[in-house]
Predict the 3D structure of the following.
Amino acid sequence: MATNPMQRKARNSFLLGMLVMLLISGIVIALLFMQLMNKTKKEKEELQASVNAYVLNQDVSSGQIITTDMLTLQTVNKTLVPSNATSDISFIENYALQDKEGNDIYTKYDKDNNPTLYIRKDNREYQVKKEEETDNYYIEKNNEKEHLELNSLPLIAKVTMKKNTLITTELLSKSDNPVQNDVRKQEYNMLVLPMDLAKGDYIDVRIMLPSGQDYIVVAKKEVDIPEINGVPSENTIWMNLSEDEILHMSCAIIDAYQIRGAKIYATKYTEAGMQDAAIPTYPINESTSQLLRNDPNILQRAMTAITSRYNNTNASELRNNYINPAITAQGDQAQSNIETNMQESITNSQNDRKEYLDSLNGLIN
């Protein structure tokens, strides 16, 4: 049937519009496809350029102990990651291991990036293996099993680090204070403390005599400060000490109490993560020395270190020339000083304990 010109024109316009719409749709689809391909390619390139590495999930200060709960596995661009960063948490955990003789346990990777533990003993490297049935570690020496007794050393931050810092072994060091069976949390309230002392700081405890003689009693101890009603205690601190260190502290406290003008005080480490622990120099008295020799709680390793230290510094000469004369000069007053200062320390402890318990009761009520 014939159509008039107006109908033909309308139909042609419709067909032309459809053609244009299809053309535009095709172009849009092509552009979207190209964008999708580019995005996929970019994501693939980013994935290939990314690695997993552990980062800190909180700020830490120099000298602070690093635990695995402070670490988070994060995907980052490998061009921004040092080669000694790691995504293997066992690498960090193994970095803190030693055997009882102080030999480090370390991790090496094969060509397939599989980790293996090793130890160097007697100038030889041995692979550290684990018995499946007992979980005990051992090495094969002269074709025989030699079991290892391992100690875990706390890892500490060498420097102050902010959240999201990539962790490498160069940022960590092994603590000077391995946790041994004889370590106990001790409370002291008679020390003269630095004005800016804060929880987590590391200190040496020293004793200074009126003559100017100054000795290190215990070295590089992390401080914990109890809080009462949310306020840090002004004069009480906690420290983790081994049995021999507890006895050294007790002897130094009694000496400080006996000698008028003596001071037992704490000094802070300025960069605890980078600084080695000082060597204690305080010469204990003969009765404490005898107690150390006979105390079954003193570990042999500590006893060896103490013996070596005092043989090198001639402790008896220091004691006889400086400390004992100062005590003798006090006469009968020395015992009175002990009683007065000891009672003051006990009273301070009781008052702090009462305030602490009162604060807990306030929270409960």
User: Anything to note?
Assistant: The longest strand covers residues 214-222. Helices lie at 5-48, 89-95, 243-258, 286-294, 300-313, 315-330, 333-364.
